[in-house]
Amino acid sequence: MFKNNLKIAFRLFMYNKGYSLLNIFGLSIGIAVSIVGFLYVFSEFSHDRFNKNADRIHRIAVEALIGTSEIHMAQTSAAYADALYNDFPEIDKITRIKDNEFTFEYQDKKFVENNVFVVDSTFFDIFTIPVIQGKTSNLLNEPYMAVLTKSAAERYFGDNNPVNQIIREGETNFKVIAVVEDVPKNSHFHFDIAVSIVSFDRYYVNPHWFNNNVRTYIMLHKNVDYKKVEARFPEFVNNYLYNGRYSANTAKGNKWELYLQPLTSIHLNSDLRGEFEANGRKEYIYIFLIVTVFILLIACINFINLSTAKATKRAKEVGVCKVLGAEKKQLIRQFLLESVFFSFISLIIAMMLVELFKPFLNQLINKSLIIDYTDPIFIMVLIGLILFTGLLGGAYPAVVMSSFRPIVVLKGNSQRGGKFLWLRNVLVIFQFLISVVVIIGTLVISIQLNFMQNKNLGFDKEKVIVIKNVNTIGGSIQAIKNEIENLSFVQHVAYSDRLPGRTLAGRGFRVEGEKDGFAINALFTDENLADVLKLKLSKGRFFSNEYGTDTMAIVINKETEKLLGFEDPLGKRLIMEGPTLSYFHIIGVVENFHYESKHQKIHPMAFMAIGAPLSERGYYLSVRVVSDNYTKMIAELSNIWENYSPGVSIDYTFLDEQYDSLYKNEMQTKKLFLAFSFLTIFIACLGLLGLASYMIQQKTREIGIRKTFGASATTIIWLLSKGFAKWIIIANIIAWPLAWYLFDNWLNNFAERCPLSWWYFALATIISLLIAWITIAYQTIKASKANPIDELRHE
Q1: Are 574 and 510 in contact (CB under 8 A)?
Q2: Is 590 helix (H, G, I), strand (E, B) or coil?
Q3: Does a structural domain hold residue 716?
Q4: What is the pLDDT of residue 786?
């Protein structure tokens, strides 16, 4: 019986090749998109789960309120480590991570490394990063040791053994003791070189509790509830950060609270200041999951529509089968088997499409979507997809067609779809409802992303070339600056340790005469950065070479001014904690600007002069230009660079690109939404194409008669198109409030958001109507131009 059912299904496929191929093609695309969508969602939820102790690893984060400034950050002080070991026996291991930019030399080659981790020796005990060569235990437990990833080792040493080789950073030699695998892509951090933290006293023995410049991770002992550890953090903060005076401090409304972030929750649930990279956002993943399911549903709806549309052609077949004794359940089984058969063929084609386009998709979304065909779970998912699409797509047609009355259909009255016409209309409405919501979502995401990247930043990120590897030129910074400033296309050149788009280091300060401390994000620079970024001064001035005391001056932003509470902060002194107390006088206040992502509120920050106590070395030369000929400008900058750093290529980027990288996740979302929007509409149009073709076949006699009585081609087109237009307009009316609710809530996740304008909805309606009309236009124009005699003879 099963073999016979398969034969009938195959013959049906061959007899109705047009409808069958259309059905299979639409279903294949739907299944392919759903597979990619599920792989993407799985990839996002799998972040950091490759660590064998992932469930025991947590990061310490800070939530604070100082004055009117809210602080949410992933950075803490290096001083925490020893105190945590002493007070929390539940902690097995602790590692601190300080990300840095170093310039290493090997033989006569220089390498500018943007992803260097300064870490404790426990780093490789906590995180599962397999060793390929060299020591396998006690890594980085001594000063001046380095561990390279596989890709970094290949850049430095090629095929030679890197173990025990020496790489230099300035005057310091680091011995390579091991090579490890590259950090998997589904990790919330990545590095190329790790060096021992005991090589740097300023990180390892820093005793200052508000110098927040490291990320602290702890691994708990087995079966320890992290919430119980977290509950004791207030006591820890009171004892160590506030010397028992925390209650007095909170009486003023301030707070400084620590909490633990489970490692596996960071990627999708954390958007703090000081993240290593732009994390994902859980709400995006849920949106993609919903859209993925909807696209699969649209493909199934197409199957239902086309199957029910073909039902009248098989009415006599059903009647004959019933007269010969076929039971209803046998007919249902036959039709469901046909549906599953088509679903199986569609799955095969879908997997071919996924494999064909997977490299392009990985490049588009910067992911490594991997399909393991031997994974039992993946196989079960594929089987589930076949059954889901097959049974869902075939259930209603099977019930409808198996219910035909044999006497009626054998007389020629095949119930021309009246019973299930209402369902087809509902399904068309549902298809375009989803399509319209996705179109509106694509518009909202695109415009919000543009708003975040370009509107009201408080600085000008356009036309700024950033030279990143300036540490390779040693003490010649001022000389190269002077030469670059003399180029005709250059307006200003600045030297700084950070720029917008890069995490600023938190420094501990207090107002002179007060005991309570607070953290300010510090950016060390020369006198030209305000001109390069086109910052607006609201009070005072920026640094100047005319004032020798400016190495101990500080320029604050408006948020810091609010924090301090002075009516006029100019001339006031701030004390910075360090090996010795350093006093800085405030010389200026700049208007707030978004030096971090717009996901973050603007935090207190300050500009300090390069050369000030505890200043970082400058890493960047930022060059504001007036020309658009970037090829020529880069060539001239490279010529100057070659004179100061021979043999080392200039490493440059553009400030707008660097800042826009903060929105990597949003840009991925935009690309995927564009692709999903197109595919959603395309699949819906395939169904419309099939239904329009079937409808025209059903109305052949009517078309012929109307044309005989003088109906024009325009009249025929309107006749055949207005039904679909009506349902699409209804779909839009339903979609508008749904889309408004969804995307208004989504926009509320941003500190600054674009308005949800009416024209998004009007444009979505126009697009959906236009696409639907184009889809059925060919069939309707062809029918309207046909010879009416041929049409009546056909009937």
Answers
A1: yes
A2: strand
A3: no
A4: 62
Please check the confidence at residue 447 and state whether its pLDDT lies above 90.
no
**CA 495, CA 382: separation in Å to the nearest integer?**
56
Indicate whether 383 and 298 sit together in one domain.
yes
Please check whether residues 484 and 626 belong to one and the same domain.
yes
**Is residue 9 located within the same domain as residue 108?**
no
Q: How many CA atoms lie within 13 A of 546 on its CB side?
A: 3
The answer as to whether 639 is a domain residue is yes
Q: What is the tally of helices (H) and strands (E) in the chain? A: 26, 23
SS3 434: helix
Q: How many CB atoms lie within 10 A of CB 45?
A: 16
pTM for this entry: 0.75
CA–CA separation, 605 and 368 (whole Å): 37
Contacts 24+ apart (CB under 8 A), 378-384: 381/38, 382/347
Hey, is 710 helix, strand or coil?
coil
371 within domain boundaries: yes
Please indicate whether residue 705 or residue 175 has the higher confidence score (pLDDT).
175
* Distance of alpha carbon 460 from the chain centroid: 25
Domains in the chain: how many in total? 3
Which tops the pLDDT comparison, 280 or 484?
A: 484
User: Do strands 605-609 and 518-525 pair parallel, antiparallel, or not at all (unpaired)?
Assistant: parallel
Point out the domain boundary residue: 644, 662, 680: 662
Residues 702-745: tens digit of each pLDDT: 777 777 777 776 777 777 677 777 888 888 899 899 889 888 88
The residues near 494 (Cβ < 8 Å, ≥ 6 apart) are 525, 526, 528, 529, 531, 532, 533, 621, 622
Task: State whether 642 and 549 are in the same domain.
Answer: yes
Average pLDDT, the chain: 82
Strand-pair category, 490-496 with 620-625: antiparallel
Render 263-283 in DSSP notation, one character per residue. Answer: GGGHHHH---BT-SS----HH
Instruction: Fill in the DSSP letter of residue 164.
Output: T
| Cβ neighbour number for residue 698 with a 10 Å cutoff | 13
Domain of residue 10 covers 1-51+276-416
Residues 407 and 469 occupy one common structural domain: no
> In this structure, what are the phi and psi dihedrals at residue 539, rounded to the nearest 5 degrees?
-150, 150
Q: Which of 15-29, 30-44, 258-272 has the lowest mean pLDDT?
A: 15-29
Burial 49-73, CB ≥16 within 10 A → b, else e: eebebbebbbbbbbebebbebebbb
Do 11 and 128 lie in one domain? The reply is no
Residue 339 has pLDDT above 80, yes or no: no
Q: Does 421 have pLDDT greater than 70?
A: no
Domain boundary among 198, 222, 246: 222
Q: Are 649 and 559 in contact (CB under 8 A)?
A: no
Q: pLDDT: is 325 or 386 the higher one? A: 386
Residues 487 and 623 in one domain: yes
Taking 90 as the threshold, does the pLDDT of residue 534 lie above it?
yes
| Residues 42 and 112 placed together within one structural domain of the fold | no
> Is 722 domain-assigned?
no
Half-sphere CA count of 344, side-chain side, radius 13 A? 9
Q: Is the dihedral angle over the CA atoms 538, 539, 545, 549 positive or is it negative? A: negative
The continuous run of DSSP H or E covering 728 comes out as helix 713-747
How far apart (Å, rounded) are the C-alpha atoms in residues 783 and 723? 16
